[in-house]
Every structure is written in structure tokens, then in C-alpha cells.
Design brief:
7-stranded antiparallel sheet; Transferase(Phosphotransferase), domain 1; Leucine-rich repeat, LRR (right-handed beta-alpha superhelix); Rossmann fold; 1157 residues; 38 helices
Length: 1157
């Protein structure tokens, strides 16, 4: 899905809030209620639209009925054959994912509070219609400006199933982010319940506490595999000082089998509450009554104390005590499950009679991972009802033949052992759906594996396989095949018979080709062949890594037909007008110079062949016109396989030649393509530059031609050698491509047509033997990158004429831009005037609107909607002078600061905002806009590399207008690679001082409340600054932070508010009066010799009580309080017998301080 602003009746989209795998969320304004909302657009499967089911609306209505503080409210929903979206509550704040990206981890109490809030919200959803989240992750847990935790994307899986039943199984597990997906969801189970969400919440809690996800891998498939087959690290190993209760809570939530987790959200919330209360250290032995063994002991006695017949481990007993979990035995209604996680002492070999400890006829799940088991007894075959067997990360070298007797087995996990062979009897496991054998020492797999007709997942990664049996093609239900990191040199052609395959991982092998049968895959969505001996993919295909059919088709076409080396590239000359680019090309090609050479008014494309040894490379040399009016179109032709020649006029100097401007432009649009800087007209004057400094600042500069003269030929030969060297080493110049592609390329180069439809192009491809639509699409992109054609098939306005001669298009556009008629009309163009501008022989009237549509696509013009005849305005042809725009006092002001400000930024913005222009108030670098009572002045200053924005009008409307303006600038910025544009806020009382918006956001999320901007001495509140341009954030302007907002802060807490000194003084005075009165009363009833002691005691009590009052107010630290108490008692002399006791008391005072800290 593109970033194009969608058009929804009744809503005004403002900006993109986020993009995910299956949807894009926009911030929008609901016009009827004048409120800000969020709109989520679902991406259609493979861009083919949706097969709508009637229950989408009913599902959305059901979700809209959920009314809970912790759930994002849904307002509306709509679906048709082309689009589907839901309208929901807009939350100004940030996500837990934002927090994790800014800070490593949270404290135990903070993380548990987040988990508690999420559990409460999902409990409400589950109890009101059994609504499953299904894709719970940190990025859909939001914290609003009041600190309330809110869950978004609830019920997304159900909505997708209603949109497309054909893709439901694929969407079911791709919606969830793999780092938090439950094992059953990773396995593709369609019938999930709340226990799946509980696992995801446990994975998020683990991330919050440890600062990293539980599992990682080189691909999504690897991570999904690890959720199924790997045990999570012991939380105590990854999370320092984790309380035992929290560690056990994680194990409880992250159990592989759903039956071992909380069975509902009520149990989950109970567990979280207990873990929150029981964070003090607990001795597990006090719980289970084994006082003779310490919790950290690895002694064998521990294994003897906790016997296997108890069907419970030490951890499980502690967990049951803490969370109320029930033991899994034959008296329960749940499957009989054995889990031995008792110690790190290797078991080596289970006793032969171990099966007698259980009722083998009932056992369904057996977990024995990481136990050091070296051998399985043959009695394993007696567990005939066993459905799940975990034996991963042991020391098994072989399997008994009796394993084939486990006829009910559905999941077998043997990853991370030392198994060298698999017994033939494994083929008897006809119920097996998932088989994990990664990380063993297998060199072959048995042919009997073909009997596993129900197998859906087969993981053979990390073994020593050199090939696969042809019988593997019989696994018709297989959906995922993992063969990463083996020694495969080839694959059987029968593998193409796996018609239901969705994921195929072949990376890190020794493959040199792929089976032709791969072309039969219809549902393959994940495919990885990196790090093999296969040819390097051309960039047109490599950048579409998710397009598995394009990758497969490329390799197959290379294998089935003849191939040729490309040996072709593009060279682009850029620079100011009149610097000698055209003369330089003629000098390089050995052509005669024309001393009256006209300026290039478009592009000239010349063919030039350069030879380096035995290699000849054909260069398509593009000579761009240097006039500033043409700079806006350069970006559409700067592509891959390109060498850039930046031409400077030695007579003009560095500043006049705009050296750094052009270097930044090339770097922004051309990425890492190499650049040669050429200083021409050296016969008249030499240019002196900081050559080394430039190359250090711009590493893409590969060389300088410091003194070139096209007229005398000076340094031309050296430049020619430099170009030849760089071109022959240019990436992808020597790609090997199917010969049929070259036949099509030749025909497209020599066709007399300047334009053709895509259907005509497809017919040419079919005649050359390239009939596959994916290959045709890849090929036209390849021709586009080479500069042979222009193709814009993604734009519906150009669909009838979208295979174009680049010179025909660009020269037509440049004729319009350079037209004297438009210069006189100050950029106003009537379509009827094109007859005078464009020659009819080359540009028939039927194609005039196409040329205008091209200019609209390039955002070079916009149409006047209120004109009777079709009339356009071209901002680049407007007058430079700024008109009188009125007063802008007390305006909301922001600025964009750029590393380089391309002239196209202002003109493209004017085009994009054409519907809001106020009374045709515009000029070449600025515009005045109006909207809902607000006026906006947007002005670009190329010299200062700044765009200034000022907005007046109703203060509650200004930020909304600003958000719309910012969203348009964001889209322009995102279309220019490596453009550094920073939003800055000028200070109201110091307008010349600005602060970076993103910097303020970072400071605020880290807990900083105030800032002294550079250039002032004024302490400013960050919340106030941010609220001026985005009040919907509702950031507190004081040190108040509440709810979760208080929790998600760095360790440096806010200083507590100090009490009033006047109030403290009045309290001390009142207390002194009362105490003196009581002292006088007491002295009447005591012996005369005790009166001095009473009075001294009274005097010393006054500062002590005052100190406690000050400590309670926060104006006295613990250290100060302790010191006052100690000094008071020292002077009294009643509790101190000697100096040593005095020192001890002082030490105890400091110890108390440390404990308080």
C-alpha cells in the first residue's frame, strides 16, 4: 500500500501514524463531530482486493460494543471489494514498543503493572464474546497522556478471516509479530483461545524485564520454530535480581503447552497479583517441606528428594503454591503431562522401568528438554496415546526403533541433540504434524518419511545433509520446510509437488541452481536462498525480496535458456546550466565541438562504449539540462547501475557552481552511486578546492578530474580512463540475464514508437518467449533502470500509455517548462495552448493530457478546479517576489531545517496543497493557505535552507491545520532519500532561538521536564513547548506524572514537592509553646534536682520533632534526620555510655540511611 492519502467520505486524513504487515493507520478528523480519530486501512492480499464476507460488519459491530478504559474504542467500519477500514479512538501518547526502543527495560513493579492493565482489558474482551487479540505486541499496547494503558488491534485476526477466507490460514499467523507469538499460533492452529494471548503477554513481560525478546533468528521462520521447539532462557539467567515470584510467573505464562498456562484471564490476573505481592525472596524448600536442601543446590540428593512419580518438579511446586496451579495427573480432566525440570544434573539414561511410574495408556504430553539424556529406552513405544514429545537439547545420538509405535504422536521435538540417523520406523507416525530435527548430525533422512502424509512442519536446519530423497515430494500437506545451514548441493525436482508449501528456507547451503518445478509453488510467501552459490540477484529483483515468484522465475529462466552478460550501465551528467556538460560528452566521444553549442533544454541520451581489457561496457550517457527549472525532474531518472559526473565550471568557483548542493542532491536521489567531480574550462582558469576534505565528507566521490578542457583536450584522456575503470567495477553491470530479455531490450531500443500501452509491451515479451507476468514486470523495471524506457504502471492516469521513450517524455515536459508563453503567463497553462508549445508531429493532441498527467505525477503542476477550460498552474514558473500576505503576529510558528533544500520541496508542497490556497496567493517559494478560519503562511528560503510556517486563526484549530501541513511535508521528505529535515519550534519570546521537536520528545519520554535552550537563559517546560504545536498530546506542564506515565520513566525520579516554609515555621512555633507549657506543669510535681534534666530534655525534643516534620515534608533528607537524632542524644548523654557506643550509633544511623535508599 502506498502513502497516498485515502479518500473517505466524512473524514479528513491528516498523517500516517504507523504501518504494519497488514495495515496502515492514519490520523484523521471526523468532519461531522469535529473530532480526531484513527483510521486503520487493511492491506488487501497480494494487492488483489478483498473477498468480502457478510460477517465483517457484524464482527466490527461486536467489537464496537466493547466499552472498557483499557481498550481502544471502535467507532465505525467499512469494507468493499477494494478496501476495508475501521475508525477508532485516537490516543495521543506513545506505545510500550516506543518505550522499549528508547530504554532497555523496566523494573519488576512497573512491568507487572503494565501486564495487569493488559490482562484486565483482555479479560473484559474475552468475557464479552470470547474475543481473541491474536497479535498482542508492545506496539499495540498504548499509554495515553493520562497514563492509562490501552490495548489496540483487538480482534484483528477475526476481521481478516472475514475479509478473505482463501488467505485466512496465511494471515492467521502473519498478523502476529514473531517475537511474541504463541507456539500453537506459530504452528498454524486455527482454533485459538485466550491462552494464546496469555503466552504473548508473558513474552512481552519477559521483554520488558530483560530488555530483549525471548527468541531471535535470521528469519521469521526461525523465530517461529524456536517458539515451538526451544525453551525460554531461565529468567534468572537473563534478568538480574528478578524475584522468584516474577520468575515463576514468566515460566507459568510461557509454558509451551496451553494446558500448563493459566486457563483463563481470571487465573492470569490472580497470578500477576500474587507475583506483585510476593516479590520478597522465598525459600522454595519451605513450601515443599525439604529443609535439608538449599534452593541453589545442584546435588543429586535434590533429584532424589523430588521424585519423578510425584509428576511435579521443584519449580512446579513453588508455582502451585504461588499461583494455585494444579498438578497434571490422571485425576484431572486435562491431558496427563509430565515435566521434569528439577536440576542441571544429567540423567543420561532413563531407567528401563521408568514407564511404570505412569499410566502409559493415559500419557499424552511428555516434556524432557535439556536433561542430558543420552539414550531412550525401548519402552518409549508403550505411550500409545502420546501426542507431544519434547526431547530437545539433550545428548541423544540415536532413537530406538520403538519410537515408530507412538501412533498418536502429533508433535515430535528432537532439536539440539547429536542424532546421526533416523530409524526407518519413523514413517509409521501417520498422525505426525510437526517434526523438529534442527541442530543434529544427520547426513540423510529415511525414505519412509514420505509416509507422513499429515506432516505440516519439517525442520531439518543445522544438519549435514547433502541432498534430499525424491520421496519428499509426497508430503502434500507440508506447509513449512526448513533446510537452513546444511550442505545441500542440489534438490530433487519432486520438491515442487509440495503444493501447500508456504515457507521454504534454503539459506546457508551450497546450491548452484533451483529445480524447475519451483515454478509450481502457488502459496509460497516466505523464501530464503541467501548465502548459497547461486548467481547474485539483479537489484530490480533483490529489492523485492518478498516477491518469491520474481526470485524463482529469475533463477529458472537463467537455467532453462541461454544467458548473456549485461555489460551495460548509465552515466548521468549533472551541474549548473552552461558549465560545459554537452561539450564534455563530445570530447569524451571524440566528436567535433561546436563553439556555439546551445544549452540543453531537456535531456540528450548518447550511446558510448568503453573498453577495459577484454570487457566492453555500453554506457547510456544522459546529459541533463542544468537550468534550475529542470532540477525538479532529475529525481525521476536517478536510478541504479549509474555513474554520476558532476561538472563544475572552473571560472565560477565553488560557491557559484553550487558544488555541495549538487553533491547532496546526488546523494539524496542516487544513494551510494559513485561520483566523479570534473572541473571544466581549465584552459581559462583553474579551480582550487579542498579535495581531500570533500572526499572525506562525501565518500561516494571516487575521483576528481581537476583540470579538464574540452576545447584543448587537456586531461580528457585521463578522465576517459577514470570513467572506464569505475564503470567496469560498477555494481550489477556484469549481471548474467536470460537471452530472451536482451531480445526484448533490443526491440524496445529500436522501436519507432515513443509510447505504447502495457498490453503492447506484453505482446512483445510473449513473442520473445517471456510469457510469465512476473518476469515481464521485472524486465520492464530493469529496462527502466537502464534508461531505455520509462514505466509508471502503478499510476492509473498513465495506464494507457505507460511504456515510454525517456527523451520523448522529458523533452515534452521541458518544452513546456521553457516555454516563453508560460513565462509571460507566470506559470498559468491552458491545455489549448499546448498546440503552440508542442510540435504536433511528435506530440499529437491525443497525448497532450498524458503529458500533463506526467507533470502532475511529478508534482510539477496542479489543475484549477474552478476554471471552465482545463487550466494548470506550474509553481516553478511563478514570480520570485513575495506579495504582501498581511499580519502574522501571535501566530503558531514552526520551522523545517534542512541539510539541503531542493527547490522542488516548495513547489511540490504548493501542488499538494492547491485545494487550500487562499485567493491565489502564491509565489515561487511560498504560499498562503486557508482552512476552517485559519490562515497559514508557508515560505521556503533556499539560502538559509529553511521552511517557515506560521498559522493564525482560532487557537483550537491551528494545531489541526499544522498537522495537515506537516503530513504533506513528511510525504515529500520521505520521497527523497537521505534528506535530513528537522522540525524545530521557535521560542515565543526569543523567535531567533529554536529547539528540535524530536529532541524534546526524547527528553520528555526519558523523564526530563524542563530545558534551557541554547541562546537563552530561560528555563522552559518541555510539556508546554510540545503542547503548543500538538495539544492533543496533553502533556502535563508541571512535574505531575500519574498512573503508568509515572512508571515508564528513567531511574531519576521527579523531586517531590517541598512544603511551604511558612507552614513549617508556624507548626514549630505552636509545638514549642505547647511543649514549654507541659514542661512547666511537670516541673511542679518532680523533685527539684530533676527539674534541670526535664528542661534539657524538652529543649532537645523540639529539634527532633521539628526534624521529623521537615523530613515528612521532604525538606530534610534521611541523612540529615539521622544526624539530628544522633547529635541530640549525644548531648543528652542518657543513651550514650562511651565514645565507642557513639560511633556505633552513628554507623547504625548511616546503615538506616542506606536501607532507606
Amino acid at each position: 500500500m502506498t502513502n497516498t492519502m485515502p479518500d473517505i467520505p466524512g473524514f479528513e486524513c491528516i498523517e500516517i501514524l504507523g504501518k504494519g504487515r497488514k495495515g496502515t493507520v492514519w490520523k484523521a478528523r471526523q468532519i461531522s463531530l469535529d473530532r480526531i480519530v484513527a483510521v486503520k486501512f487493511f492491506h488487501g492480499p497480494e494487492n488483489t482486493g478483498f473477498a468480502i464476507h457478510n460477517d465483517f460488519t457484524s464482527l466490527a459491530k461486536h467489537l464496537a460494543m466493547l466499552k472498557h478504559e483499557g481498550i481502544i474504542q471502535i467507532y465505525d467500519a467499512e469494507a468493499n471489494n477494494l478496501t476495508a477500514y475501521i475508525v477508532m479512538e485516537y490516543v495521543a501518547g506513545y506505545t510500550v514498543g516506543d518505550w522499549l526502543r528508547r530504554k532497555e527495560k523496566l523494573g519488576h513493579e512497573d512491568a507487572l503493572l503494565v501486564a495487569k492493565c493488559v490482562a484486565e482489558a483482555l479479560d473484559y474482551a474475552w468475557s464479552h464474546g470470547q474475543i481473541l487479540h491474536g497479535s498482542l505486541q508492545p506496539d499495540n499496547i498504548l499509554i495515553d497522556s493520562d497514563g492509562v494503558v490501552k490495548v489496540s488491534d483487538l480482534g484483528e485476526i477475526s476481521l481478516f478471516q472475514s475479509l478473505s477466507s482463501r488467505h485466512a490460514s496465511i494471515y492467521h499467523n502473519t498478523l502476529a509479530y514473531e517475537a511474541y507469538i504463541s507456539p500453537e499460533q506459530a504452528l498454524g492452529e486455527m482454533k485459538l483461545d485466550c491462552r494464546s494471548d496469555i503466552y504473548s503477554l508473558g513474552a512481552i513481560l519477559y521483554h520488558l524485564l530483560s530488555g530483549e525478546t525471548m527468541f531471535s533468528g535470521t528469519s521469521r521462520a526461525v523465530v517461529l520454530d524456536r517458539h515451538v521447539s526451544d525453551w525460554c532462557h531461565d529468567p534468572a539467567e537473563k534478568i538480574s535480581n528478578i524475584p522468584l515470584a516474577v520468575s515463576l510467573l514468566l515460566r507459568y505464562f510461557l509454558a509451551k503447552d496451553p494446558n500448563h498456562r493459566p486457563q483463563n484471564w481470571t487465573e492470569a490476573q490472580k497470578a500477576i497479583r500474587k507475583a506483585s505481592r510476593l516479590q520478597a525472596p522465598i525459600n522454595p524448600m519451605d513450601i515443599i517441606g525439604v529443609s535439608s536442601v538449599t534452593v541453589k543446590s545442584n546435588d543429586r540428593d535434590l533429584l532424589q528428594q523430588i521424585e519423578i512419580p510425584s509428576q511435579d518438579s521443584l519449580t512446579n511446586k513453588v508455582a502451585r503454591f504461588l499461583f494455585g496451579t494444579r498438578p497434571m495427573d490422571r485425576t484431572t480432566s486435562r491431558p496427563n503431562i509430565i515435566s521434569t525440570r528439577t536440576s542441571t544434573v544429567p540423567i543420561k539414561c532413563l531407567p528401563n522401568d521408568w514407564h511404570s511410574l505412569f499410566r502409559a495408556s493415559d500419557l499424552q504430553v511428555l516434556y524432557l528438554p535439556e536433561e542430558g539424556i543420552e539414550k531412550l529406552p525401548s519402552q518409549i513405544g508403550e505411550f500409545r496415546k502420546l501426542r507431544t514429545l519434547y526431547l530437545n537439547r539433550n545428548r541423544l545420538k540415536e532413537l530406538p526403533r520403538e519410537i515408530g509405535e507412538l501412533v498418536s504422536l502429533e508433535t515430535l521435538v528432537l532439536a539440539g541433540n547429536q542424532i546421526e540417523t533416523i530409524p526407518h520406523e519413523i514413517g509409521n507416525l501417520r498422525s505426525l504434524k510437526r517434526l523438529y530435527l534442527a541442530g543434529n548430525r544427520l547426513t540423510t533422512i529415511p525414505v519412509s518419511l514420505a509416509n507422513l502424509k499429515n506432516l505440516r512442519v519439517l525442520d531439518l536446519s543445522g544438519n549435514r545433509l547433502t541432498g534430499l530423497p525424491a520421496a519428499i515430494g509426497s508430503l502434500q500437506n507440508l506447509e513449512a520446510l526448513y533446510l537452513t545451514e546444511n550442505s545441500l548441493t542440489g534438490l530433487p525436482d519432486e520438491i515442487g509437488n509440495l503444493s501447500n508449501l508456504k515457507s521454504l528456507q534454503l539459506d546457508r547451503n551450497r546450491l548452484t541452481e533451483l529445480p524447475i518445478s519451483f515454478s509450481k509453488f502457488k502459496f509460497l510467501s516466505e523464501f530464503n536462498v541467501t548465502d548459497n552459490l547461486l548467481p547474485v540477484l539483479p537489484p530490480e529483483i533483490a529489492e523485492r525480496s518478498s516477491d518469491t515468484s520474481a526470485i524463482i522465475n529469475y533463477y529458472i529462466q537463467r537455467q532453462v535458456g541461454e544467458n548473456r552478460v549485461l555489460n551495460e550501465a548509465k552515466m548521468v551528467l549533472v551541474g549548473e546550466g552552461g558549465v560545459g556538460k554537452t561539450s564534455l560528452i563530445k570530447a569524451l566521444l571524440g566528436k567535433r565541438l561546436d563553439h556555439d553549442e546551445r544549452k540543453t533544454e531537456g535531456i540528450d541520451i548518447t550511446r558510448w562504449e568503453v573498453t577495459d581489457g577484454a570487457v566492453t561496457v555500453a554506457l547510456n550517457v544522459w546529459d541533463f539540462g542544468g537550468q534550475e527549472i529542470m532540477h525538479a525532474t532529475h529525481q525521476f531518472f536517478l536510478t541504479k547501475r549509474t555513474l554520476y559526473i558532476l561538472v563544475l565550471d572552473s571560472r565560477q568557483g565553488e560557491h557559484q557552481s553550487r558544488l555541495e548542493y549538487w553533491l547532496k542532491i546526488i546523494q539524496s536521489f542516487g544513494g551510494d552511486s559513485p561520483i566523479i567531480v570534473v572541473c571544466t574550462k581549465a584552459d581559462e582558469q583553474r579551480m582550487d578546492l579542498d579535495w581531500l576534505g570533500l572526499q572525506r565528507k562525501y565518500p561516494v566521490i571516487v575521483g576528481f578530474a581537476k583540470a579538464v578542457s574540452s576545447h584543448t583536450g587537456e586531461e580528457v584522456a585521463n578522465l576517459r580512463e577514470m570513467i572506464t575503470r569505475e564503470v567496469t567495477h560498477l555494481g550489477h553491470v556484469h549481471d548474467v540475464l536470460p537471452s530472451a530479455w536482451f531480445h526484448i531490450k533490443d526491440e524496445m531500443e529500436h522501436t519507432p514508437k515513443d509510447f505504447m500501452s502495457y498490453d503492447e509491451y506484453r505482446a512483445i515479451c510473449a513473442n520473445a518467449g517471456v510469457e510469465d507476468s512476473t518476469s515481464q514486470k521485472t524486465l520492464v523495471q530493469f529496462l527502466h533502470d537502464l534508461g531505455i524506457v520509462l514505466n509508471f504502471q502503478d499510476d492509473p492516469r498513465l495506464e494507457d500509455t505507460n511504456i515510454l521513450n525517456p527523451e520523448w517524455v522529458t523533452n515534452g515536459v521541458y518544452r513546456i517548462l521553457n516555454s516563453n508563453l508560460l513565462f509571460q503567463s507566470k506559470g498559468v497553462l491552458r491545455v489549448a495552448d499546448l498546440h503552440e508549445i508542442l510540435p504536433s508531429t511528435t506530440y499529437p493532441s491525443s497525448k497532450h493530457m498524458f503529458i500533463m498527467d506526467m507533470m502532475r505525477k511529478f508534482e510539477l503542476c496542479f489543475r484549477f478546479e474552478d476554471e471552465k477550460e482545463e487550466t494548470f498552474l506550474i509553481p516553478d514558473l511563478l514570480t520570485r517576489g513575495e506579495p504582501d500576505t498581511g499580519e502574522w503576529e501571535d501566530a503558531l510558528a514552526v520551522q523545517y531545517h534542512y541539510n539541503i533544500l531542493p527547490g522542488s520541496v516548495a513547489s511540490r508542497f504548493i501542488v499538494r496543497m492547491s485545494s487550500s490556497i487562499s485567493k491565489k496567493t502564491y509565489w515561487r517559494s511560498g504560499v498562503v493557505l486557508t482552512r476552517e478560519g485559519c490562515r497559514a503562511l508557508v515560505r521556503a528560503d533556499a539560502e538559509e535552507r529553511t521552511v517557515y510556517i506560521r498559522i493564525t486563526g482560532p487557537k483550537n484549530k491551528r494545531p489541526i491545520f499544522l498537522a495537515l501541513i506537516r503530513s504533506e511535508f513528511d510525504r515529500i521528505h520521505n520521497s527523497i532519500a537521505q534528506l535530513d529535515a528537522r522540525l524545530r519550534i521557535p521560542l515565543a519570546h526569543h523567535p531567533h532561538v529554536t529547539v528540535d521537536y524530536e529532541h524534546l520528545i526524547r527528553l520528555y519520554t526519558r523523564g526530563q521536564e524542563t530545558i534551557i535552550p541554547e541562546g537563552t537563559e530561560e528555563l522552559l517546560n518541555i510539556g508546554d513547548l510540545l503542547n503548543t504545536i500538538d495539544p492533543e498530546l496533553k502533556l502535563p506542564s508541571t512535574s505531575r506524572r500519574n498512573k503508568v506515565t509515572t512508571i515508564l520513566q528513567p531511574e531519576s525520579a521527579d523531586n517531590p514537592p517541598h512544603a511551604s516554609h511558612s507552614r513549617s515555621g508556624l507548626f514549630n512555633l505552636f509545638y514549642a509553646v505547647v511543649l514549654v507549657s507541659l514542661t512547666a506543669l511537670v516541673c511542679k510535681f518532680v523533685a527539684w534536682y530533676l527539674v534541670p534534666l526535664v528542661m534539657i530534655s524538652t529543649i532537645l525534643l523540639i529539634p527532633i520533632v521539628s526534624a521529623f516534620h521537615a523530613f515528612n515534608d521532604g525538606t530534610l533528607t534521611e541523612r540529615g534526620l539521622v544526624r539530628i537524632i544522633v547529635e541530640s542524644y549525644n548531648r543528652l548523654g542518657l543513651l550514650i555510655a562511651s565514645n565507642s557506643k557513639k560511633n556505633n550509633l552513628e554507623g547504625e544511623g548511616m546503615h538506616v540511611k542506606g536501607d532507606l535508599d
